[in-house]
Specification:
The protein has 10 helices and 8 strands. By secondary structure, the chain is α/β, with parallel strands linked by helices. The protein has a single domain, classed as 3-Layer(aba) Sandwich (Rossmann fold), CATH 3.40.50.1820. The chain has a 6-stranded parallel sheet, sandwiched between helices. A two-stranded antiparallel ribbon has the order 5-6. Helix 8 links the parallel strand 7 and strand 8. The termini are close together.
Amino acid sequence: MATYVIVHGGWDGAWYWRPVALYLQADGHEVYTATLTGSGERVHLATPTVGLTTHIDDIINILRYENLDEVILVGHSYGGMVITGVAERVPERLARLVYIDGFVPRDGQALADLLPPDAMAWFDERAQTMGDGWRIPHDPPDADRRTDFLLAASREPLPISNPDASRLPRAYVACLESQAVPLFAHFKEAAARAQSAGWDYRELPTGHVPMETMPRELADLLISLA
């Protein structure tokens, strides 16, 4: 059976992945749904200095302290930045990377480089007017259990140079409805890059949150990648 570590996107937490995790566990797989520092039930740990490196450390510590190897590391949206960074540092613990409508940075890029300029300007404005200069509230601010995304995480560039990481098998899952959303323009380009690079490419006929709209189908897809 496979071991999955799932990294959520911005504003979310492990709670969002519970339905998918339950399906995977029912099929006999081991599943760890991580919550990044400052998000979800770890919102009390948010500070202005928490950024991408902190979130990469979060996942590496799960791998190390749970003594996990041959991990299928899954990243949704911003989680794509995180899993790319984890692979750079501990590729020996990973079997495969799976990006679900995820950001796929090139060497030296930050999340801010992958967003449309007007979207990043809007994030900056929300942080200044509603988040004490360092938090980006969700829109709407009181949406279910979502917590603020941290501005520092969007600004931190990611060095990519480890040849062992570059050899890891990768898959890209494109959520087709989100490709028409201007905020998510990067995903269409990332999907095309994934196909041209020979990644295992899959599609889901849904929007940006398949763990909510198609949890059974998403779980089945992840199982098929094991």
